[in-house]
């Protein structure tokens, strides 16, 4: 077991690669981990790797190069870094990850105890009833997003286009059930376009107003909104934390406040989804879904003992604590490398690596999905459509699955 956990932690350092979605690392290395360490230890290793990657994600988000002409629509952490507040942004995201870990262990631990005492799997019962609310919640969120959008018809067009691409990429008979089906979809809609934007950067960064050091607060009320959004994102699969938090962004008065709320939501939602998915309570659209796909494709079964849930929670909280302690040690050399290596060289190297992974696992089919996703992404940029519209690529296939609708 120690070897498996060390392997998982080291693998999680790949989260430092800017622009590379960590799900791609799990999809590539997951089968080898399970074959080498067995199902239970392999799953614990992947849990540890996801926690480490989540911590490293704080550095890649803050210090990843962003085209200056897209800075206004970039992550608030990147805007803080552009204003010389990179360490403050990293601190906010680190605190949020730890809060998400504590909340996850507390909630899941209590539910496991209830299950042991009463014999009722209360989580499955809860999610079964919440599952029917997914489609109405999606419709309500869609209407809200379109209503707020500056370009109504453009937003609807991107919703439809990304949703259709998601159905083709995830549900087509040639790839359905494959552990690699999400790799080209994630690369096309998110990874490659972001990297290409860096290559065509034309403008310099502009100063960004940030909260003065003397007036910084923890904004507990925004953290509570973030926790609620994170928990709801697990209860309503398909509606990611970003889409839920976007409905509350008017509550934040500056980038630091919005980053705190969004980071708490994302950390809580991702870690809860990871815990639920690994325990096979539910298959969420997150790293947990990737782990489930890898295990199914590799072994076809789950042989877990009664003590596994507690071991999983222990690994999750310990891995998050260790990962946050690692950030200061890797942060300085990482920032140095980001400064020394030209941003365009970084983007080219990561883009080539991502395309190689897509090609090696999915061939020409995956490359076509990447091209289509990239065109949708850049089309959305030209139309002024927010990134939230891209979530239709996961939501529409999930809605079809809920109603057992097959198109082929």
Distance between the termini: 43 Å
Secondary-structure element sequence?
HHHHHHHHHHHHHHHH
C-alpha-based Rg, rounded: 20 Å
Q: Regions with pLDDT < 50 over 5+ consecutive residues?
A: 203-216, 281-286
What oligomeric state best describes the polypeptide chains here? single chain
User: How many strands, what sense, and barrel or not for the largest sheet?
Assistant: none
Q: What is the average per-residue confidence, as pLDDT, rounded to a whole number?
A: 75
Structural class: mainly alpha
Number of domains: 1
Number of strands: 0
- Tell me the number of helical segments per DSSP (H or I, 4 or more residues long): 16
- Percent in strands: under 5%
Describe this structure in words.
By secondary structure, the protein is mainly α. The protein has one domain (2-207, 217-402). It has helices spanning 2-12, 22-37, 39-63, 76-82, 86-118, 122-131, 134-148, 152-171, 182-199, 220-235, 241-246, 255-278, 287-298, 308-340, 343-383, 392-402. Helix 5 runs antiparallel to helix 14, helix 8 (152-171) packs across helix 16 and helix 12 (255-278) packs parallel to helix 13. The N and C termini lie far apart (43 Å).
How is this fold's topology laid out?
Blueprint: H1 2-12, H2 22-37, H3 39-63, H4 76-82, H5 86-118, H6 122-131, H7 134-148, H8 152-171, H9 182-199, H10 220-235, H11 241-246, H12 255-278, H13 287-298, H14 308-340, H15 343-383, H16 392-402
Task: Give me some keywords for this one.
16 helices; 408 residues; mainly alpha; single chain
How would you summarize what this structure contains?
The chain is mostly helical and 408 residues long. Helices cover 73% and strands 0% of the residues. It has helices at 2-12, 22-37, 39-63, 76-82, 86-118, 122-131, 134-148, 152-171, 182-199, 220-235, 241-246, 255-278, 287-298, 308-340, 343-383, 392-402.
């Amino acid at each position: 077991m120690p070897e498996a956990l060390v392997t998982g932690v080291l693998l999680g350092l790949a989260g430092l690669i800017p622009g590379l979605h960590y799900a791609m690392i799990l999809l590539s290395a997951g089968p080898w981990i399970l074959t080498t360490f067995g199902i239970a230890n392999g799953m614990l290793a992947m849990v540890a790797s996801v926690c480490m990657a989540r911590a490293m994600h704080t550095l890649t988000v803050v210090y990843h190069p962003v085209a200056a002409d897209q800075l206004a629509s970039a992550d608030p952490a990147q805007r803080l870094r552009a204003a010389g507040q990179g360490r403050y942004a990293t601190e906010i995201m680190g605190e949020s990850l730890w809060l998400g870990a504590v909340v996850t262990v507390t909630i899941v631990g209590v539910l496991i105890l209830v299950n042991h005492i009463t014999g009722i799997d209360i989580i499955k019962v809860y999610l079964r009833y919440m599952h029917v609310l997914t489609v109405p919640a999606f419709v309500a969120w869609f209407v809200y997003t379109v209503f707020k959008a500056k370009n109504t018809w453009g937003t609807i067009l991107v919703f439809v286009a990304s949703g259709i691409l998601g159905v083709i990429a995830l549900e087509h008979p040639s790839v359905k059930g494959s552990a690699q089906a999400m790799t080209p979809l994630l690369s096309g809609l998110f990874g490659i376009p972001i990297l290409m934007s860096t290559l065509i950067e034309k403008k310099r960064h502009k100063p960004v107003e940030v909260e003065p050091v003397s007036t910084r607060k923890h904004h507990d009320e925004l953290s509570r909104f973030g926790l609620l959004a994170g928990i709801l994102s697990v209860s309503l699969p398909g509606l990611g934390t970003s889409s839920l938090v976007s409905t509350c962004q008017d509550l934040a008065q500056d980038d630091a406040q919005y980053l705190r709320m969004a980071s708490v939501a994302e950390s809580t939602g991702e870690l809860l989804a990871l815990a639920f998915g690994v325990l096979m309570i539910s298959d969420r659209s997150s790293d947990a879904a990737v782990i489930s796909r890898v295990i199914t494709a590799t072994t076809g079964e789950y042989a877990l003992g009664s003590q596994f849930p507690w071991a999983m929670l222990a690994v999750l909280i310990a891995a998050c604590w260790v990962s946050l302690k690692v950030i200061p040690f890797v942060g300085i050399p990482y920032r140095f490398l980001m400064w020394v290596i030209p941003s365009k060289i970084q983007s080219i190297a990561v883009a080539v690596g991502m395309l190689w992974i897509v090609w090696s696992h999915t061939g020409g089919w995956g490359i076509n999905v990447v091209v289509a996703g990239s065109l949708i992404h850049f089309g959305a940029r030209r139309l002024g459509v927010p990134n939230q519209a891209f979530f239709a690529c996961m939501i529409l296939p999930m809605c079809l699955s809920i109603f057992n609708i097959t198109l082929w």
